[in-house]
Design goal:
Blueprint: E1 2-8, E2 15-21, E3 27-32, H1 41-54, E4 61-65, E5 71-76, H2 80-95
Amino acid sequence: MRAALRVTPGARRTAVDGTGLESGGRKFLKVSVTAAPEGGKANAAVVKLLAKEWRVAKSRITVVSGATGRRKTLHVAGEPKALLTALRAWLENRDG
């Protein structure tokens, strides 16, 4: 499964800040990390945060595009239906 992100490195706190919508209608997850955007530190912090939030192993999450930019696409390895069900439940719990 793929997930679109907009990442803010060097933030005051490491957190998932909600969702956003691109002009083309594509949803993305807003993520802030305290790590600096150098040497892959911010990407590693994003993977660590989302692995914890989503309750998956860090090794199952890889950055497939945008490694040096704020907009990233992640791949989460696993059975797609189970991942989608778990992530939908996670989003619903975050929203309210």
